[in-house]
Each structure stands twice: as structure tokens, then as C-alpha cells.
Amino acid sequence: MIQIPKGCKDILPAQSKKWQFLETKARAAAEQYGFREIRTPVFEHTELFARGVGETSDVVTKEMYTFLDKGGRSVTLRPEGTAGVARAFLENGLQGGALPFKAYYLISAFRYERPQAGRLREFHQFGAELYGSAAPYADAETICLADGFLRSIGLKKYALELNSVGCPTCRAAYSKALRDYFRPHLAEMCPDCNVRFEKNPMRMLDCKVEECKKWTAGAPRMLDYLCPDCRAHFEEVKDLLDGAGISYTVNPSIVRGLDYYTRTVFEFTSDAAGAQGTILGGGRYDGLLAQLGEANVPAVGFAAGMERLLMVMEAEGAPMPEDEGINCYLLGMDAASRSRAFVLAEELRAHGISCETDLVGRSVKAQFKYADKRGARFVVTIGQNELEEGAAEVKDMRASSSERVKFEELAQYFMIRR
To answer: Quick one: fold of 13-167+227-316?
Structure first.
């Protein structure tokens, strides 16, 4: 038997209601703030991610699914959503429209990494992007949107952590300070950190290797190197969040995993599903669109892993809908009554009533068993007597009661009881 690829997971009908609930909450939260959905291709030219995500990031250097198409062009399955949205924004001339531009997405993405709980090679993200405002208000509103979304799905045990990673001006001095600090310890650090030391020493702060962590813990802090503009920006973001009643802590260790971040970075974390982990993260990336070859357009956004969110929701006991089954099952006792049941089922569906009827020629007993497995609230029985009378026997499976209902009144009967 052919099996699913490693790091992928089927979302079966029994779990789909939970996913639909989460997606509905995501759409509602985003649209409440004026964001509208954008859909971009599952694969893009590899150059987009190399230039946009950053050549020194782990995503680009280790985790992308990249291949040559039949025309010999290098294409990559998207490892995240932001670069594709930025490309669509520029390619479609949206910078010439009303700004700020606000868009959200619900996507599948792909990274070749070790599968673990809540982290798969094909995973799903909810993300939001705001282009065209450099003001701290945009940072604060994006964080408020993220916080409101997490509250809307019933989460309570999470924390918001903030940091600023500055701008190219102040980061130059910080990168020098990091190199001065790490240089004596390079021999004790992992090969990846030795590469990052030359290309982007800030990436060293995000290393997960235990031997490296003991050195990164004492590294200089970006907050001590912020230029006056970046410091003022960060202070105003915090003031706005204070005014909105959003609780947070400043965590100087946050750098995020992608190279395009500038100034504000943030993470919502939770330990409800085990070890402390990020459930939603983002920040500002004012230089991203310039890296893609256009005039500088300021931007801020976030993304959340849907698999991780569902794990945390379940761990917290957040309310999630279950599949309630179908509204009714129409049971035919013989060939003629099955034909009538088929027609009645179509009439009920035309009124928005979910129902099923026999498709495989089951016995009456087997049809009752099937209706029970499908969670039918009502079973509508039709036999020869019912055909002659023009009325069906309707049994309420919850109340264990039954009554006679005329065929032409069935739709109204079920609409009242939905």
C-alpha cells in the first residue's frame, strides 16, 4: 500500500469541523480590521525566497523544497506566506492603490525539517500583512489583531513577548559587537554558527544547539544599540499596546527566524501543549519590498501555525465544534419507496437541510445502523403504506419519539427543528 509522505498528515472528515472553525475565526478576526483575503501560488521562482526570506536563514539554506521544472527553471514550494504576498503586491501594482494595503491568507506551506508534534513538512498558516505604513500604529494594530484572534478561539494561557531588532543603521554597530563577542568562542560553536558569524551574526542568537546557547545567552542585546529613531518607534509601540490593554514582556532574545525583519518583532507563546513554544509570530519588515527590486514600502505582519494552534486549543480545553452528523436520513423499505426517498432528499437539500438516503441497496436494519453511524437526528421511514398515504414516519432519534408528516411538509418540519 502506498503511504503518505513523511511529515505530512491527512485531515480526515472527523477533524475538518475543527479546522473550519479555526479558519472561520481567522477570517472574522482579520476582516474586522479591514484585511481581505489574498491567494498566491503554492510554488514560486526560487529567487523570490532567496532574496525575500534571506540567504542566511535556515529556511533558505536547509529547509526549502526546490526543484527544476520541465523548462529548467528553479522553483520552490512556498516555505512561508510573506514573500509571495509581497511579490503579488508589487507585480499587480497594488502600491498605487489605497494604502495601507491589508491582506490575510490561509495557506499550506512546505519545509523539509524533522517532523515533530505540531511541526510538519506540509503545514498550514494563517497570516496577515499590512503594507504602506511605517508608523508604530501599524505595528500595534497588527499585534492587537493577533491577540484578538487568539482570544476568539478560546485561548487564555498565552503570553506576548516583544523586541526590536533595529534598522540597518543601528544593526551595523550591533553586528560588530556580536562578532567581537562571539569571535573567541567560535571553536566551541556549531558549524552553522560559524557560517552565520560571517554572513549575519544575529542569526547566531536563534541557534538551537545547546553548546551554542551557553554563549548566546550572554551576548550583547540589540536594545542597547538602537538608534534614536528605532528606540522612539519601539517605545511608542509599547505605549500603544499599554493603552489598548495588551499585556506583554520585552524579550531581548527574540530575533525571529527570517532575515527580512526590522524594528518590532513579537511572539505569542504558550506552554499549554508541553514545552514553551511560539504559536504566532511576526514583526516589521520595512526593507523586504526593496529587496525584491522596488521602492521601499514599509510593512508589518504575522503568521500562525494552524497545527500548533489546534494542539494548544485542545490542551487548554478551548471549545471546538464536533461533527454533529446529518439532519435526517430517509429510509426506503423497498424499491419504490427508495425512489421516493431519493426525490424527497433532493427537495430537502434544496431547502438547506442536510440529509442522506440509501445508495447501495441496504436492508431496513442496515439502513437504521448506517443512519446511527452518520449521527442522523431524524430517520424518515417510507414504505408502501407511507407511499399510499403521502406521509412519512419521522422518528426523532434524540427524543425517541415519532410522528407522521406529509411529504410536502417535510422541509418545513425540519427547518423549524434545525
So the answer is: BirA Bifunctional Protein; domain 2 (3.30.930)
